[in-house]
Amino acid sequence: MTTTELNKIVDFLKGVPFFSEVNKASLLELCKHLKTETFETNDCIFQKGDVGDAMYVILEGKVKVHDKSHVYSVFSRTDCFGEYAIIDDEPRSASVSALEDTTLLKVEGAHFVELIASDRGFTKGILSVLIKRHRELDVIQERLTGSKKEIELANSKMSGLINGAMDAIIMFDSNFRIVLANASAKELFENDDVLKRNILFFMDEESADLLESLVKSDLDGGRKEMNSYLPKIVKVIGSNEKETFNEGTISNYGDEKETFYTLILRNIDDRLLAESKINSLKNQTKYLEEEIKELTSVYGIIAQDKSMHKVLSLVEQVANTEATVLIQGETGTGKELVARAIHTASERSDKPLIRINCGAIPANLIESELFGHEKGAFTGATSSRKGRFLLADKGTIFLDEIGELPMDLQPKLLRVIQEGEFDPLGSSSTIKVDVRIIAATHRDLLQFSKEGKFREDLFYRLNVFPIVVPALRDRGDDVCLIAERMVQQFSKKLNKPVQPLTHEQKALFLEYQWPGNVRELQNLVERAIIVSKNDQIDWNAIIPNSIKENKTNQAEDSNRILTSQELVQLEKENILKALRQTNWKISGEKGAAALLKLRPTTLTSKIKALGITRPV
């Protein structure tokens, strides 16, 4: 920088209020280390939270002090900003951006402090400016000298009252500059040096707009007495970015020339957290009570058959992992019992298992049930509600009949599985959850996906660890074990003792095909206990007699000619019956081929030709 340019900058600084009392020689020393920076329109000079190391003087142009879109002040030529950065290294309390092409003089804090220490003239000039800034306070103090003791006593009492208060008490002027803050307020703001700073800098945009509108309304209304509760909860953001929610009151005092405002804030984070936990527990209790009512069995998993032992082995393998499980099986096979077994054996067993039947809830309500909703999200939403995914956080959610989930909700479920997050209905806030997902269906989801009724990517996400629960008719003697346990339970519950099952009665249970599986068995046993007389049950009258029905049907259809397709289906059913009786053993003395009087190779060819596959 040339001598002429230096002199021009010195003359300019003499017109800057902050440096107006500093002599030219000292200003010349200051200018030797000044840096000139230029910014184009909308350029960011520094952002809120940046650590400050310098102040700025506007040589040309205009800048705005703001927090996102909320503008606090506009500065132009000869104005300064960022002065606090020359004496401390606190984060910037607001952002500053150029409103037009702007040239700034940057005064670095290190050089400013060095001049204060070494240049008496520079120090004297800066102190003179500061003294002028406080001249009004000095005048007031002189006028009150006569009553100094009374003022000190009153001030002592007031300070003790204010500083001892647990609520944050802040007083500020009509320009939002803080003139008083108690210890609780400084703790709330995470800043011990808040005097003269703009209170709006410590609030989010919505809360700052609220406070600004209240003050503006008061000023426009002729400065009438104001003492009211804040209409909304305000969000305070401390210097260390800690966010708190507060309720409070605002009042005004002063005269026609100047008005001051007292803001009292009370942190309600603990209360909101407690209310949230209470509501969560209430909802959780409600869902758990509903689920207890919906349980289809209280007997646990009774299994001796190899097919069910294989299921239990898979449960043990997957329980302590975080893998998503898809349980498949016919209706009434006890898929939810398998889901409970997985949850109970997992590390999440002390956390909730939340169940929802995707096929039992109307399509227009299931999104709210799963993901929750905000107040006013739809007609009838008079209050916000937590969804079952949030209730299951840290635990397990069991999505029964997942094949009935509407197509438009499947991408949202896929997002939860992949990213562990979702947006409640009517909310723009994203919620993160840690949930283990177990799904169940009696549908062929792969075929559904090929038909466009289920998302293929969602199917593969759910089918990480498939478990197929066999039908009751494929579980051998398990049907008798389960029936005996049910007889004991219902007999005790209904206070009607009955005789144990005989071998002949067990044969009836083994003979019937149980299309309704365990659920059908449960209903038949309960009805049998109710109608029992003298400790006896006529199981022949209770269990549908498939052999008798078949003979009747055969007699009626004896003259009917079967089609080739019917003959193929009849042969397929006959082979399946033989395979079930031999536990899918084909060759050997006790194999299906021997029962059918066929060669093992011939039976194998027929099995392939008829598309017969063994249940997993």
3D architecture notes:
Strands 9, 10, 11, 12, 13 and 14 form a six-stranded antiparallel sheet that branches. 44% of the residues lie in helices and 17% in strands. The chain has 24 helices and 21 strands. The chain is elongated. It is an alpha+beta fold. It comes from Flagellimonas hymeniacidonis. Residues 301-530 form the Sigma-54 factor interaction domain. Keywords: ATP-binding, DNA-binding, Nucleotide-binding, Transcription, Transcription regulation. One of its GO terms (biological process) is regulation of DNA-templated transcription.
By CATH, the topology of the largest domain is Rossmann fold
What characteristic shape results from the CA principal axes? elongated
CATH superfamily of the largest domain: P-loop containing nucleotide triphosphate hydrolases
- The Rg value, from CA coordinates, equals 40 Å
How many domains, in number, for the residues? 5
Chain-averaged pLDDT? 86
Biggest sheet architecture: 6 strands, antiparallel
CATH architecture of the largest domain: 3-Layer(aba) Sandwich
Counting DSSP H or I runs of 4 or more residues, the number of helices is 24
GO molecular function, one term: DNA binding
Keywords: ATP-binding, DNA-binding, Nucleotide-binding, Transcription, Transcription regulation
Organism: Flagellimonas hymeniacidonis
Protein name: Cyclic nucleotide-binding domain-containing protein
